[in-house]
């Protein structure tokens, strides 16, 4: 039996009647959040990472029904931050095929909100659930570290 | 593909319990395992609205709600100080942060999965489970029961443990474990829990290794050897039984030596 | 002074990708209302379909059409993306009554609603006659079980192919009397090395959408590396002319060779062709794991003859390769296992022989995966060289310095090509310096009992397929004096759109931003074999360079006409032509004037092919930490030094290298392929096929020692594939240095190491007891 949910997606309120087994990833993609990608069926790849009430989760593993009343943010709602961090990744040539990027960038934003100055090991551990087959991770790590350094310097100057 | 006819956000445990008595009903935990099944669920029962996602500390125990995420366990200062980081170590290898933000302790324990890190650690900590109908029973006992239609409400962890440690071996760092080993001391007892054998975690107690006792490295070696010879291991795609038996010795010895404060 | 080439500039598509723009096949909006196509797949490894009943299934609301083997043409074809006439045999139908592996398609269901399709898949009743399955590739030749007994099986170019003996290919080549030289050697290393059918696991699974356009032509939008080959494959599969097919690729989410086969294109193409309706097929991760195009499992038998002083004189290699149920890339991958391993030791080599058999079995068909057979051969040969060094007690880097191929040598095992550019010696020197080879012992026991050790390997690959690959570029001037570069090479994340633009910009003396790149589209791009075989930078890059030069000549000639002077009197600075008398004409003016009363064309197309395939070279050195009790291996540090000629974009070259190395590390240590005794693959998801995550390694460090390849664009060779070749032998070597044990089968899991060490200890104890 369909049910009605009220959610806020990237700041926009949506009220919709949905099937009870609809997954959040499919709900979001149907609402134009095409940055949200599916890379597996086993909750292993991290490509579908979104924020559910500010917490990074795998949207492939959340019932849309369960998101009723929640705030959802996808990369579409974080374009400025994505471009800022993404620029540092791009300067390493580490975005490569790009398919894992939205999930990885979402989760990096989550990390830096929780912990603005993580160590290298903390970065790796937080992003362990974001698989990438192209980059070998090294350029992404350097890009993230460069962003953190840049933010620190910007703060010092300000 | 999993199909669900009705989604019910339970308003009370009574209602959830009633609905759950039908074979076609399912309580949804983190959804991570359920999502991969191909079953047809009539009523999917969500306990999210019942405030069961908290970790409460009382003078003599931690009461962990079934909807508490593995990530909350990992970050909880009290639980981790109490277990010397063993709780964190037991869950931090599970896939990734976004996964652990969804996976619930209730789902992990209810499933009584062979590979479960969570079952391994809580058994070592002498935890009990609080069930809606059956009341409080020791986790060790619950782990052996066949899944039924009762509802797991909380995990209760007594504050009797004074020292604990957690070790595991995995093919990759975020994979299922090949073998898990949790060890905990009370002053007069020692509890070892070995999981992913690949069968579900089993418990071995040895009062000799309580924190108040004294024991030598030779004692530890003999015990570890004994453990590895006596627990049942099996083969699956991650490892053969013989390797698991070998690891049981290594991890048991290392756990005890860590608790003893000695070298590995 | 180079301005664009050899610069680490951002990829042209970088910001779109990092901000998550909808640029992939399923994001474009074209297929939002298209039919969804799914396949019913065989649960059996070998069977004959006795009957299929689709009546109940087709009555389910939302089901548009169901097709079975009875509906498809009976002309066989190959899914391999290779230049015609393909060396891979024509052994497939879109669907076949004869099921040859678990996952073979039995029915195609098209519908509007995924749930309805899933119900329909369950409602189709299939009766199978289950046949005995041939699952062990050692048993293939001479087996009573024939994988392809059919009479319309066809090989266009026989390399010993014989479907009546399960042979997909077989050949022996040699130079000199290998047996005589081996007999004269002090030492013969004689071992068999076994590698598995690893998966590429690009993050975007296989996917294709199709529609009929205004002109009644079949349009294919696919995540592919090979638009032109896909056009031919679909033409063969459907039996329709190529002129009625158009194939385009949008951004694609990784390939690594997986998408050098038309793994999924023919199915939705068939559905759209039959129904006239748009449709799409998105492979699940399970499908991408169990019925795709992985690496060929190979067993490489090496006999390496050497003298006590380390001089390597003879190499004899026999490779048995498992192509699985179909022959995609079977006859071609195998060649690299010898021809791109033996030549590494050209210097003192007096004789070599290379023989192989490629066999059919009832497992998933293999395909093209980065390294393409070289990876398997190099694991074997580099391991054998490390075994030799250990046997004679020689530094494994010095033995290589003594024997490695040098610039200027003719490589007899590499089709007698001259080694025109080679900095392998400098790569070795630099890699040793980076890891501290001369300061660190090969094995150190740490205070906690763990062991740190080093391992080394070298590699070579090719740059395109000599005399076969065709790369093309069309360059035209746009209205504002910028340029359009049209290509059919496929940027799969590698950055070739940007790299080719850098080459064009260098020639045309303009910023890279002024080159707009478009590709790949069979209707608008010039013919290109596609992006595979490490060909794009070297082959298509050269085409781009020549095209840009030619366009510059054209522009100069037209500018001279407009300024009424001689072309040689004009000076061009990338923006403006200046005549000797001071008159000027900007390219913007030139472009504008070329659109009015003009009868030339400021546009040029160049197709390029190369008679040679100059090898890139590299050295990799691994430092690991090994726990001798649990057997766990942690790669602490991996240094790699590459000679890819001139790196056109050092950032992209470095990232290619790091990415390839990590794939190689996964292959070496834990990427496992396990079949049930019924031929079902257990490693069917990211849960069961573990690729490296970012906590599974320490660091990878890369540097370049560049030679200059005269036949390449600005001295460039290739880099895409070679980078996966060194980790397996280097890690096997490091593990040997830590444990004293050689592991000759991949992956080298912690279990194998721990159990091997236990057995070694037991043997030592037994030996000691016997002595007493």
TrEMBL record, chain B:
Pfam family, one: CO_deh_flav_C
GO molecular function (one): FAD binding
Keywords: Flavoprotein, Oxidoreductase
Every FAD-binding PCMH-type domain range: 1-162
Flavoprotein found in the keyword field: yes
SUPFAM superfamilies: CO dehydrogenase flavoprotein C-terminal domain-like, FAD-binding/transporter-associated domain-like
PANTHER family, per the entry: XANTHINE DEHYDROGENASE FAD-BINDING SUBUNIT XDHB-RELATED, XANTHINE DEHYDROGENASE SUBUNIT C-RELATED
Name of protein: FAD binding domain-containing protein
Species: Hominifimenecus microfluidus
TrEMBL record, chain C:
Any GO MF annotation of the entry: iron ion binding
Record-linked Pfam families: Ald_Xan_dh_C, MoCoBD_1, MoCoBD_2
SUPFAM superfamilies xrefs: CO dehydrogenase molybdoprotein N-domain-like, Molybdenum cofactor-binding domain
Coiled coil: none
Ranges for domain Aldehyde oxidase/xanthine dehydrogenase a/b hammerhead: 19-132
Signal peptide: none
Keyword terms: Molybdenum, Oxidoreductase
Keyword check for Cytoplasm: no
PANTHER family on file: ALDEHYDE OXIDASE 1-RELATED (PTHR11908:SF132), XANTHINE DEHYDROGENASE (PTHR11908)
Protein name: Molybdopterin-dependent oxidoreductase
């Amino acid at each position: 039996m369909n049910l009605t949910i009220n959610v806020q997606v990237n700041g926009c309120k949506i009220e919709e009647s949905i099937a009870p087994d609809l997954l959040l990833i499919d709900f979001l993609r149907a609402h134009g959040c095409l940055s949200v990608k599916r890379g597996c069926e086993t909750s292993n790849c991290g490509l579908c990472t979104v924020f559910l009430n500010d917490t990074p989760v795998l949207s492939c593993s959340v019932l849309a029904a369960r998101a009723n009343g929640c705030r959802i943010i996808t990369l579409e709602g974080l374009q400025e931050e994505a471009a800022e961090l993404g620029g540092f990744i791009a300067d390493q040539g580490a975005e490569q095929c790009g398919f894992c990027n939205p999930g990885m960038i979402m989760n990096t934003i989550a990390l830096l909100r929780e912990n603005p100055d993580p160590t290298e090991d903390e970065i790796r551990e937080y992003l362990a659930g974001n698989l990438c087959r192209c980059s070998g991770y090294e350029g992404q790590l350097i890009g993230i570290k460069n962003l953190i350094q840049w933010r620190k310097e910007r703060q010092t100057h300000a | 593909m999993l199909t669900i006819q009705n989604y019910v956000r339970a308003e009370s445990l009574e209602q959830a319990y009633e609905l759950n008595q039908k074979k076609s009903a399912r309580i949804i935990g983190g959804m991570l395992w359920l999502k991969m099944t191909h079953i047809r669920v009539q009523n999917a029962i969500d306990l999210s609205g019942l405030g069961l996602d908290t970790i409460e500390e009382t003078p003599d125990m931690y009461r962990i709600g079934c909807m508490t995420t593995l990530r909350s366990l990992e970050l909880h200062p009290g639980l981790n100080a109490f277990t010397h980081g063993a709780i964190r170590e037991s869950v931090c290898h599970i896939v990734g942060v976004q996964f652990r933000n969804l996976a619930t302790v209730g789902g992990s324990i209810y499933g009584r999965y062979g590979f479960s890190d969570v079952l391994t650690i809580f058994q070592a900590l002498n935890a009990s489970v609080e069930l809606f109908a059956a009341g409080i029973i020791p986790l060790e006992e619950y782990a052996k029961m066949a899944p039924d239609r009762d509802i797991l409400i909380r995990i209760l962890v007594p504050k009797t443990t004074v020292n604990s440690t957690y070790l595991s071996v995995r093919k990759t760092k975020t994979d299922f474990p090949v073998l898990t080993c949790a060890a905990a001391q009370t002053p007069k007892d020692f509890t070892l829990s070995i999981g992913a054998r690949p069968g579900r975690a089993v418990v071995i107690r040895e009062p000799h290794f309580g924190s108040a006792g004294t024991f030598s490295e030779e004692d530890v070696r003999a015990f570890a050897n004994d453990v590895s010879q006596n627990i049942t291991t099996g083969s699956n795609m991650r490892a053969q039984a013989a390797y698991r038996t070998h690891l049981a010795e290594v991890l048991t010895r290392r756990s005890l030596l860590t608790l003893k404060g000695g070298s590995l | 002074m180079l301005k664009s080439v050899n610069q680490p500039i951002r990829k042209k598509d970088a910001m779109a990708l990092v901000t998550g723009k909808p640029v992939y096949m399923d994001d474009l909006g074209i297929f939002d209302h298209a039919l969804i196509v799914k396949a019913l797949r065989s649960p059996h490894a070998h069977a004959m379909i006795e009957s299929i009943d689709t009546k109940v299934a087709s009555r389910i609301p939302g089901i548009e059409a169901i097709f079975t083997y009875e509906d498809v043409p009976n002309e066989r074809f190959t899914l391999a993306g290779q230049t015609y006439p393909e060396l891979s045999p024509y052994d497939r139908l879109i669907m076949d009554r004869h099921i040859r592996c678990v996952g073979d398609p039995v029915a195609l269901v098209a519908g509007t609603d995924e749930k309805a399709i899933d119900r329909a898949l369950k409602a189709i009743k299939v009766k199978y006659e289950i046949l005995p399955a041939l699952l062990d590739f050692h048993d293939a030749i001479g087996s009573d079980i024939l994988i392809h007994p059919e009479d319309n099986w066809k090989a266009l170019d026989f390399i010993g192919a014989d479907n009546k003996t399960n042979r997909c290919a077989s050949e022996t080549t040699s130079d000199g009397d290998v047996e005589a030289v081996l007999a004269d050697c002090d030492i013969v290393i004689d071992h068999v090395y076994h590698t598995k059918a690893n998966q590429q696991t690009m993050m975007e699974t296989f996917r294709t959408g199709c529609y009929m356009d205004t002109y009644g032509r079949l349009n294919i939008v696919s995540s592919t590396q090979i638009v032109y080959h896909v056009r031919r494959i679909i033409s063969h599969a459907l039996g329709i002319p190529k002129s009625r097919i158009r194939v385009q690729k949008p951004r694609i989410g990784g390939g690594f060779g997986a998408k050098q086969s038309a793994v999924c294109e023919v199915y939705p193409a068939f559905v759209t062709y039959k129904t006239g309706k748009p449709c799409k097929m998105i492979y699940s991760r399970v499908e991408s794991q169990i019925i795709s195009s992985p690496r060929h499992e190979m067993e490489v038998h090496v006999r390496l003859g050497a003298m006590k002083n380390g001089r390597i004189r003879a190499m004899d290699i026999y490779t048995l390769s498992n192509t699985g149920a179909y022959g995609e890339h079977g006859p071609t991958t195998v060649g690299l296992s010898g021809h791109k391993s033996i030549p590494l030791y050209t210097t003192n080599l007096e004789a070599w022989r290379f023989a192989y058999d490629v066999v059919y079995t009832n497992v998933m068909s293999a395909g093209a995966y980065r390294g393409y057979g070289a990876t398997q051969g190099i694991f074997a040969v580099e391991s054998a060289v490390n075994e030799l060094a250990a046997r004679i007690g020689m530094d494994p880097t010095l033995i290589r310095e003594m024997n490695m191929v040098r610039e200027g040598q003719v490589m007899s095992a590499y089709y007698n090509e001259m080694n025109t550019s080679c900095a392998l010696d400098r790569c070795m020197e630099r890699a040793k310096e980076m890891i501290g080879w001369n300061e660190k012992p090969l094995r150190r026991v740490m205070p906690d009992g763990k062991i740190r050790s080093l391992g080394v390997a070298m590699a070579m690959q090719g740059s395109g397929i000599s005399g076969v690959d065709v790369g093309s570029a069309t360059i035209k001037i746009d209205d504002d004096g910028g340029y359009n570069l049209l290509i059919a090479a496929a940027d799969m994340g590698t950055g070739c759109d940007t790299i080719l633009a850098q080459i064009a910009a260098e020639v045309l003396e303009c910023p890279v931003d002024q080159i707009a790149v478009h590709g790949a589209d069979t209707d608008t791009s010039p013919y290109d074999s596609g992006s595979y075989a490490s060909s794009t930078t070297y082959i298509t890059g050269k085409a781009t360079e020549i095209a840009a030069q030619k366009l510059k000549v054209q522009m100069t000639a037209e500018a001279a006409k407009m300024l009424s002077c001689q072309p040689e009197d004009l000076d061009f600075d990338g923006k403006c032509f200046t005549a000797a008398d001071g008159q000027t004409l900007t390219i913007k003016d030139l472009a504008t004037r070329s659109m009015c009363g003009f009868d030339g064309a400021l546009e040029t197309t160049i197709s390029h092919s190369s008679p040679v395939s100059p090898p890139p070279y590299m050295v990799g050195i691994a430092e690991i930490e090994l726990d001798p009790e649990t057997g766990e291996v942690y790669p602490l540090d991996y240094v790699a030094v590459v000679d890819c000629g001139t790196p056109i974009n050092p950032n992209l070259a470095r990232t290619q290298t790091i990415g390839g190395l990590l794939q190689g590390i996964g292959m070496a240590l834990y990427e496992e392929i396990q079949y049930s005794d019924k031929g079902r693959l257990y490693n069917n998801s990211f849960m069961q096929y573990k690729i490296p995550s970012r906590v599974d390694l320490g660091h990878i460090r890369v540097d370049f020692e560049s030679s200059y390849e005269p036949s390449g664009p600005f001295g460039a060779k290739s880099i895409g594939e070679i980078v996966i070749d060194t980790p397996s032998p280097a890690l096997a070597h490091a593990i040997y240095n830590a444990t004293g044990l050689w592991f000759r089968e991949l992956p080298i899991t912690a279990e194998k190491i721990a159990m091997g060490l236990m057995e070694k200890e037991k043997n030592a104890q037994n030996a000691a007891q016997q002595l007493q």
